[in-house]
Design goal:
- By secondary structure, the chain is an alpha+beta fold.
- Helix content is 29%, strand content 26%.
- The chain has a five-stranded antiparallel sheet with strand order 6-5-4-7-8. It has a five-stranded mixed β-barrel with strand order 9-10-11-13-12. Strands 14-21-20-17-16 form a five-stranded mixed sheet.
- Strand 33 and strand 34 form a beta hairpin.
- The radius of gyration is 28 Å and the shape is globular.
- It starts with a helix and ends in a 9-residue tail after the last strand.
- 38% of the residues are buried.
Amino acid sequence: MEFSIATLLAQFVDDKLVAGKNLEKKLGCEDEVSIQKLQITLNALEKIGVLVKERGKYRRVYEDDVVEAKLRCSSKGFCFAIQDEENADDIYVRESHLSNAWNGDRVFVKIIKEGSRRRSPEGEVKLILERSNPSLLATITTKEEKYRAIPLDDRLLFELDLQENGQDLEAALEHLVHVSVLRYPLGQHPPLGNVTKVLGSDAEEAADVDIISCKHDLPQDFPEKALAATAKLPNARIPAAEIKRRQDLRDKLTFSIEAESNLSNTHWVENAFTLEKTEDENWQLGIHITDVAHYIEQDGILDRIARKRGTAVNLRKQVLPLFPEKVSKLCSLIPGKNRLTISVTITIDPQGNIIEYTIAPTVITVDHQLTYQETQALISKDKKPSKKLAPLVAILKELFFTLSPVVKAQRLQRGGLEVSTPEINSLYKDEGRLGTILGVATLPVHSMLTELTILAGKVVAEHLQALELPGIYCTQAEPDVEDLEDLLKLGSNLGLELDLDIEGNVTSQDYQRLTEQFATSSAVMVLNYLLQSTFKPVKYLTEPGKHFGLAYEDGYTHYISPGQRYIDLIIQRILKAVFEHGRDRRHSRAKNGVDLTSSSCHGQINWKVLPPNLQEQLETDIQTELPFLNDREKQAEDAEKDLAGLKKAEQMKERTGKIFEGLITGVQSYGFFVEIEDLLVEGLVHVSSLKDDWYEYRSRNSCLVGRKNRTAYRLGDRVEVEVKSVDYYRQQIDLVTVGGGSEARNGDWEEE
């Protein structure tokens, strides 16, 4: 059974009846066994009152005291159920009320005790909707003459019986293994698992990509049926009839700019660009996005697998893609090859204002493919380019020296951010998961190109709203004021005059000023790194909302990566529905229609652009898929951060015993955190390692103060530290001081 109860229930929207046949199609139940399992699940949900059957169709039943949530458990056994709704109460769940649910599972929780101002509401798990641990990392041991797997995650408080299945488990004793769960706990029966891979003698021995993939349940390979489906895809030759249906842009000088890692790692080149000057001295910027929707049949096997993955995951040297490699080879914008695209052509005036735009199906041919480094070199050279490259270099200089700066000025005026970073590891040319533009001092063309690509997401979102189409909007809430307090105190202790009033809500303009002030500090990289940690995650909604990092108030969407982000593919399908089924006039008797591909039609439409059935189906599909896709984005973000943490732990393990200078970036009663500036690696100096005195914690001044020697360790102090030990899997780095700190001040002794 490939679907979960959560995925099944997501098909029920707005109290509507849903036919069993429709559920079979949406959930990919193609054989008798899958159909039978679906029917058993429907019968069970009907029996417990989650569904009701009317006239052969099913309707979802809602209860006021039952909420959907995700479990977040502690190693002590108790859990909190976290609701999807912003600012909703977390619900306390005792271990005895978990009903065999595990950390991370999506569940229905019944409220059994209302909360108060001082106490969270209490609940019990009524139904497990989706398991978050279909597999896990564990070590093998023996108990009562049976092989057992003990999860590495200490929030999973159980052991699994292991099915030997012809494997030599004796040789794998005390080793780190990947275990697939064959059976979850059932009554008095413990969970049952099967070892799928022995990763190594311990976490340090295992490959980091294996650890991350297993820990976050990320598939590294595609099933045979998906690979078989790629054989049925058309070849790369585009029929003449298809070219005739599109705008032919093959005569325009077209180029792509990619990160070197993307070219070697993902095989996906999704975007290409054109730039022309109009007669009235405006620019016409073309952003051409590969037409993945043309090749991937909706609800087909490749589509269902891509939807389940949600997004490509960037594990540095390896990318876990959305589609098999043959799809990328078919769709990627390869130089010299005709390719189908959806082109966003934006007319921009000399001040950087968008005058008009079109979004239309096109066919292009890429003339030049460059890396960021090659682009930087081409526009930086003073010598005359070769005859072949001269036209391209002229366009690149216009793009990066003239157009991008005026677009950037517009962003700065509204308060949009750019944060300095030593490196960028993103698959996307827009702002990606962080929600803000990242700038690398040694490679400015990267952020300058991002200034332009985010315009595509902005105009597509505007077009969806103007035509009253279903849509998915990329939003980002403002950071919490509390998350900034220590950072502001750190900046102040470093001598910066930060004029930020944090009594009210934080605005993007406030953050913009902070980045400008941080730029004057010698600790700019650390400050910007810590600033990034205060950003709220990007969230996708069906209604336009604010985007903090880009300072957009009225709607923005992700659109330029349909081969690596499933949400972008959904947006592409909505636009293609307009191209193929959109009504350009109120009724057939009207002589003239509007141009649905152009912003010129905005304000002229007083009819439904799409047929009602299609509009309703798109709306239902979006509402159905969005919660799951938001979860997948979070899963991918966690995995990428986890890998970065492992890399840092590995880096510091090799440096055990070495001495570094660092900056104190956090102080607690149990010790202080030190950021090693050159490496952007954080470690903890535990208070028990400070043997020279008895240190007292003063939270008001964020410092630890020695009673006798009057040495203080406060935010912003520079200290010399030695790497004492590293726990690779938990990514914990223990440090000891060998010098630094500062002299205590009178105020440091004030009682709290």
